[in-house]
Amino acid sequence: MTLALLITIFVLAVFIGFEIITKVPPTLHTPLMSGANAISGITIVGALVAVGTETTWLATALGFIALVMATVNVVGGFLVTHRMLAMFRKK
Amino acid sequence: MTREMLQILLYLVAAALFIFGIKGLTHPRSAVRGNMLGALGMLLAIVVTLAFANILSWNWIIVGLAIGAVVGVVLAVKVQMTAMPELVAMFNGLGGGASFLVAGAELQREGGLPMSALPAVAIAGIIGSITLTGSLVAFVKLREKKWIEKAILPGHKFINAALALLAFAMAALFIWQGHGWEYWVLVLFALALGVLLVTPIGGADMPVVIALLNSYSGLAAAATGFVLENTLLIIAGSLVGASGLILTRIMCIAMNRSLRNVLFGVMAPAGSGGDADTVYAGKVKATTPEEVAMLFDTARRVVIIPGYGMAVAQAQHVVRDLANLLESRGAEVEYGIHPVAGRMPGHMNVLLAEADVPYDKLKEMDEINSTMEQVDVAMVIGANDVVNPEARTNPRSPIAGMPIINVDQARTVVVVKRSLSPGFAGIPNPLFAADNCLMMFGDGKKALVELVSALKSS
């Protein structure tokens, strides 16, 4: 049952994705990509749980590497997107 | 209300922020706010996670967050706008890598995972691994490191097919048996596959590859969401997956190629376009900055068509200087941007924005083509295949049918280029031999600096 619900959420979210991104002006192709990319760093949530609650050293180590990678992705991604958009806006 | 319910509802708020964020990013006016909403959603997700998970030890969390944040800030602040494709590629890879590592960490959990979670673990492993190494290879290729080309193995298609089969077989075994080692072997196969898939893909196809890897990094996160039964990961991941796919499709249409064609590299043989000697023999007219300056004296309408060469030469600032100078003399200057010019979606727009070119001057291909016949001078800077009229005229050309910017229809075309060497498609460009075309040979930046000083002194 849980799996079916999760699949439902997944499919609906894909539909929402296609619906909200209807027409992207070329100027925003790169910022959309890097902003979306920062959002894909949401795995950081899983990494936090893995580092904080795992009891085997291997799981903690894997979680820690994942946490560093995901944090770079999230922080760097949002920041660089902001930098790019600021360039577009200053006219 | 139970704790779990509250957590899921707070995750829903974060998911809504992501949706508003991505929607905002698709419109120029709301883009900055969209990005901030996305960041806010992420912050909320992190805080909620830390508040609700029974964290046993904070040490590694704080260290990991600190290292990641410092590295992320340094990269984001220091990066040159010309290096943006590499950076985006690297961030994609990190996201994919984090996803398969988290899935792997869950597998090591005491008591193990339920059998029903194993397919999702396998999928996260495959997509995440391919995203990581594929992005790293893209990163190396975008840095113009030539040694990577040597890694193209003979018969790589068969090796790839074999690797893919091995990975899927391992995935099947893992789903059936559920041992940790099977997962890591599967990851190894997928990591190798990521390297071999992206290595042979040519530079001009990079916009497609980057957009596709962007999509994969989202799908990997969604798969990890199935492993953790975490709704937020599933929603955020599939949003990114969808947005990446949309961009991939836009890029493929702009090249008139199917995704399969790009990924598996069945480009038509380059021979069908005629060889360079017969196309160019005696017809190419070289020009000097002084001559071009004289040409501009009478030009009322000028269009600049930038390509990857402008990025390589870092010529965007001098291009802007040139445009300002021409405008101060009463000419109208616009930019014609091909959707796949450069190495990532929107590459030229980012570079020109960095050089303070107002974005209403950047015209899309169809818009600029509709008025090309009234253009006095079309100036092509470091672009080649995207202005090759063969795409329109020769149905046997490897680029036949690709939408191009029709600079050949302008009164005069000036091409700034280092040599007559072919572009990515490996075919000669009859434009360079056309009657109305002048070649200004040289490094993009140097040639334009000379042109600007010639204009100033005339």
Report the major sheet of chain B.
6 strands, parallel
How would you sum up the global shape of chain B? Answer: elongated
Radius of gyration of chain A: 17 Å
Number of strands of chain B: 6
* Largest binding interface between chains: A-B, 80 and 111 residues
Largest sheet of chain A: none
Which residues of chain B form runs of ≥5 with pLDDT under 50?
Answer: 267-272
What's the SSE pattern of chain B? HHHHHHHHHHHHEHHEHEHEHEEH
Termini separation of chain A comes to: 53 Å
Structural class of chain B: alpha/beta
Mean pLDDT of chain A: 91
Structural class designation of chain A: mainly alpha
User: Terminal Cα separation of chain B, in Å?
Assistant: 79 Å
- The total strand number of chain A stands at 0
| C-alpha geometry of chain A | flat
Oligomer: heterodimer
- DSSP strand content of chain B: 5-15%
Mean pLDDT of chain B: 89
Task: Summarize the helix and strand pattern of chain A as letters.
Answer: HHHH
Q: Counting H and I runs of at least 4 residues, what is the number of helices of chain A?
A: 4
As a percent range, the share of helical residues of chain B equals 55-70%
Task: Tell me about this structure.
The complex is a heterodimer of chains A (91) and B (458). By secondary structure, chain A is mainly alpha-helical. Chain A contains four helices and no strands. The N and C termini of chain A lie far apart (53 Å). In chain A, 66% of the residues are buried. By secondary structure, chain B is an alpha/beta fold. In chain B, helix 15 links the parallel strand 2 and strand 3. In chain B, helix 4 runs antiparallel to helix 5 and helix 5 (118-142) runs antiparallel to helix 8 (206-228). Chain B is elongated. The relative contact order of chain B is 0.09. The model of chain B is unreliable at 267-272 (pLDDT under 50). Chains A and B meet through helix 1, helix 2, helix 3 and helix 4 of A and helix 1, helix 2, helix 3, helix 4 and helix 8 of B.
